[in-house]
Structure prediction request, 291 residues.
Amino acid sequence: MNFDTIIVGAGNAGLSAALTLGRSRRRGLVLDGGPPRNVPAAHAHNFFTRDGIPPAELLRLGREQLQPYDGVEIRAALAQTARAVPGGFALELVDGTAVTARTLLLAPGVVDVLLAIPGFRELWGRGVYHSPYCHGREVRDQPLALYGRGALGFHLAVLLHHWAPGPVLCTDGPAELDAAQLATLGQLGIRVLETPVAALEPAPAGGLTVAFADESRLAVAAVFARVPQQQRTDLAAQLGCAFTDDGIYIQTTWYGPNQRARRVRRRRPDQPVPAGGSRGRGRHGRGGPAQ
Prediction:
């Protein structure tokens, strides 16, 4: 085997794993697959001692702290295939290079599938946000628009109701909310607007404007939206990993306080990689561009 461990992904999770690997005197390869999910954001939040740091600076510090550990290599390369082989895993990189390791750690993250609304992509991370925990404080007590419908829109509205007075839930068509959900939103002072959204436009004095198909407009400090997500690579699917019910995240094993760790049988090279049997999710929340 070329390495003890190959880590796919050089974001916060991948670099953190690499640090443990280096301190354990193991030989590891970290594959950097390109810009991180939070690249549009100006600041990262909720990192102890680093709250508000620019995301690129956080990654620079992570790489800097790996330099003393000469057993860890970071390579700007994408893996296009992965398979189980006797004693470990074999990966083929996009440049044709083949690498092997006894263990494989997948930390590529997910990709936000941005909506086709004009202005949405341009304002993503700069006025249109995914997570209030990353951006909510900066726009607290100001007019907010929330984008979503059905259960996702309802959850987003309830989550954000205390960040600002009277946020508006824009469902861009039928709200798909039942009577109980509408009653709850009414009690929380959240207005539901079903008018189709035509565009999002930056405002000259800051904030942005939601332009609707009926030519009405709504000036807000920010828009929070739930967007679809997908795995950044298909390596987990190639390896036969199980996924959560939404098809987005790798299903991992969770051990509760009264559960014993299950023994995973050694698999043959032609068997899929075993995945845990619970619904624990291999991720840290559903944060958005500035996690």
Residues 39 and 55 are 7 Å apart (CA to CA). Confidence is low (pLDDT under 50) at residues 261-291. The longest strand covers residues 98-106.
